[in-house]
């Protein structure tokens, strides 16, 4: 049975890395001694080792050891044998590119579907959907495919932002961009606001955190989902 936390972000304003999620993660990862971390998204171009150190510092607060997947001799075996897995944020294009390059995207999907606990934040959440096509990131590399894990039946738009009332900004809003996507694509999109996450247990997907989320479906009006409700598609 799938067991996932799919979070919009790793860090909310005024707190340290993963701090707002640690109470939830302590329960979610109960019994896990070593977590396999996938650092491929590399926020700000940080090294894999440097990124892993940041994650280790956070997880040490709940007594979990962290080892970067790049530290293993066989990346595929590392995923197959992981007690639990965390994919961090950064650039989704590069993350997906490396998952394909290392030939582990199918293995990652397999172990998640078989019940290995999985945490994703930002880019690591974007890959949980049908495709990565609703990322906000710049296309700094060209992955072999935009198809991702498909562990949930919709796409994620992490860091979703609402229009600011009174703003004089004349550019596209997130909602506008998602509507453009739905001209050509049927896959639903969930706009996940900062500080919110999805709790996935089997086929049940529940919104958690302080904020509502915005669900977009082709040819339907967007719907606000309140925290605590299951995500249901029409």
From TrEMBL:
CDD domains found in the cross-reference section: GAT1_Peptidase_E
Enzyme Commission number(s): 3.4.13.21
Molecular function terms, GO-annotated: dipeptidase activity; serine-type peptidase activity
Top-level taxonomic group: Bacteria
Entry keyword set: Dipeptidase, Hydrolase, Protease, Serine protease
InterPro entries the UniProt entry points to: Class_I_gatase-like, Peptidase_S51
Alphabetized Pfam families for the sequence: Peptidase_S51
GO biological process, one term: proteolysis
PANTHER family, A to Z: ALPHA-ASPARTYL DIPEPTIDASE, PROTEASE S51 ALPHA-ASPARTYL DIPEPTIDASE
Similarity-based family: Belongs to the peptidase S51 family.
Identification of the protein by name: Dipeptidase PepE
Organism: Polaribacter pectinis
């Amino acid at each position: 049975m799938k067991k996932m936390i799919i979070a919009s972000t790793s860090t909310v304003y005024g707190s340290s890395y993963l701090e707002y999620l640690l109470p939830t993660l302590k329960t979610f990862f109960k019994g896990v001694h070593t977590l396999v971390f996938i650092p491929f998204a590399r926020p700000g171009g940080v090294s894999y080792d440097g990124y892993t150190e940041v994650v280790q510092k956070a997880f040490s607060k709940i007594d979990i050891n962290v080892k970067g997947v790049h530290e293993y001799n066989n990346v595929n075996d590392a995923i197959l044998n992981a007690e639990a897995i965390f994919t961090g944020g950064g650039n989704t294009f590069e993350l997906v590119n490396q998952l394909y390059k290392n030939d582990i995207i199918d293995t990652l999907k397999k172990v998640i579907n078989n019940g290995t606990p999985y945490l994703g934040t930002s880019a690591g959440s974007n890959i949980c959907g049908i495709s990565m096509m609703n990322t906000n990131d710049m296309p700094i590399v060209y992955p072999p495919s935009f198809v991702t894990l498909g562990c949930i039946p919709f796409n994620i738009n992490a860091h979703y932002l609402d229009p600011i009332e009174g703003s004089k900004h004349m550019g596209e809003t997130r909602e506008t961009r998602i509507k453009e996507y739905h001209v050509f694509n049927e896959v639903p999109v969930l706009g996940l606001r900062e500080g919110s996450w999805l709790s996935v247990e089997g086929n049940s997907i529940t919104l958690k955190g302080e904020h509502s989320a915005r669900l977009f479906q082709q040819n339907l009006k967007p719907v606000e989902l309140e925290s605590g409700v299951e995500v249901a598609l029409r």
